[in-house]
Amino acid sequence: MVSKRLSRQAGHRRKFLAIVDSTPECERAVAYASMRAQSTGGVLVLLYVIEPDDFQHWLGVEKIMREEATAAARSALDSYASKIRQDLGIEPELAVREGKPTEEIHKLIEEDQDIAILVLAASAGKEGPGPLVTSVAGKGAAFPIPVTVVPQNLSDEDLENLA
Prior knowledge:
- The chain is of the alpha/beta class.
- It is 44% helix and 20% strand.
- Helix 1 (26-40) runs parallel beside helix 5.
């Protein structure tokens, strides 16, 4: 069970959580969540989850790989944050976690009681909506907050009209 959401109480603002990863649809989720945060006076949180399966090597190599993965995560987040600042004039919160994506999303939601909506994007490819959408949708009623799934093929104009 998730802790009580505080986003509607005095001194709190509703936060929209978007996940940054290497999928092509990620950009659409970040764009929609950014626009939605701006239009509602909310806050955008960008999360990058580094999966630990990538670090099954000798200790010295593992440390270097972990540092490189963290640097790549920070770079991706900084790139999105810079574009958001420039285009929308809002300052996103940035987080890097290591673990399984759905578990780390749950942990962040539990820790930050202002996170009220998770925004994901569904791939337009024939192979399905993508691993994150599939894993979150598979949890069904067990997911702790509302999830907005944005189709990858929506244009910026479409997103602006919806946000």
